[in-house]
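Two folds, back to back.
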Amino acid sequence: MDYTISFDIFWLIAYTVGTLFGYIVARTMPRDDVIEATINYMIENNLVRWKRDENGEIELLDVDSK
């Protein structure tokens, strides 16, 4: 019985620490930077369809567009 309670307390503490860590990391990284880095990664690895418009900006295309 004591082992089960200790095991449950361990998981509760681990879950709480992980949640707090995730919250702190998310609060310190600006959302726009994360979105931009994600889109750039997807473009560099050919995971999305895109083209440059007349202003030189990247435009994401629908999957079905040719």
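---
second:
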Amino acid sequence: MTDIARRTGPALEAHQQFILWLVPTVERFPRSQKFLLGDRIQSTALDVLEALIEATYTRERRGHLARANLGLEKLRVLCRLATELRHLDPRRYEHAARSIDEIGRLAEGPCGARRR
């Protein structure tokens, strides 16, 4: 495993686990939102997964990690919106928020502090 894969690999694995939890969770949304808000949440999560894969297997990882970080921020907002609309219960929202935070920390690695 290369140095880059070692640094981004844990974030990639954590995000895959998050998606495995997220997909069945979104399937519980009401029909009217499953295909609107639910699809947006799932496609954003898959975009983050793609960015993490690209960061893991390319030399220039900064742009890919920035895209992944932006996607994680979008996921935070979309999950919060789903909670406020009562499609996602607070306990599941807490799990999602903690998972997203962990993925963000893992993706950064030892190279820098998170921008907020």
